Amino acid sequence: MEGNGGDAANVVAPLAKWRNDFSRAFQYYLDRSTPHPTERWLGTLAVAAIYVLRAYFVQGFYIISYGLGIYILNLLIGFLSPKVDPELEITDDASLPTKGSDEFKPFIRRLPEFKFWYAITKAFCVAFLMTFFSVFDVPVFWPILLCYWIVLFVLTMKRQIMHMIKYKYVPFSRGKQRYGRKKSGASSSGLMRD
């Protein structure tokens, strides 16, 4: 009887080691991709294109596409929302300025860009894998799902844009603002003559 327990432990140990090694390698490459947002999003666009082509050629799995669309909409709302919503919480440390005289505070997202990208990429990969199982191909009239998703998207974005206008924040930035080249004092005052 004691031999059976040892055999199971001998089988589990290599699997655990392989899982640990795979997890470390995956995290290593994930960490290396962090400073390259353009390349990451191009990869996600490629994964999304593969999923769209698969769904188009199979002519099915509309429920999966609808669920994927709802999930992406939910992620987008988190990406566009501030970490501390002035309507829900009143705190002084990380809230948005509500008056012109308030101190400037940078916009901090509820869902950071990297996590947003990672969640969308995982969602497209999972949806792609689900298209290989016929149990998920539920027969539905897809134009109704598409119309419902468009209405949901428009209403949700309208609410989000109204929130942005009310609290005067823009969730996008292009880095530090740059001004025209500053001339040195000596050359502009005429002190440096030949």
UniProtKB/TrEMBL annotation:
Q: Please, one GO biological process term?
A: protein retention in ER lumen
Task: Classify the protein's membrane topology as the record does.
Answer: Multi-pass membrane protein
Q: Where in the cell is it found?
A: Membrane
Question: Which ranges does the record mark as transmembrane?
Answer: 63-80, 116-134, 140-157
Keyword field: Membrane, Transmembrane, Transmembrane helix
Q: What is its main location?
A: membrane
Which cellular components does GO assign to this protein? endoplasmic reticulum; Golgi membrane
Which Pfam families did the record assign? Rer1
UniProt key word Hydrolase: no
The task this protein performs is described as: Involved in the retrieval of endoplasmic reticulum membrane proteins from the early Golgi compartment.
| Protein family per UniProt | Belongs to the RER1 family.
State the name under which the record lists this protein. Answer: Protein RER1
Q: What species does this protein belong to?
A: Populus euphratica (Euphrates poplar)
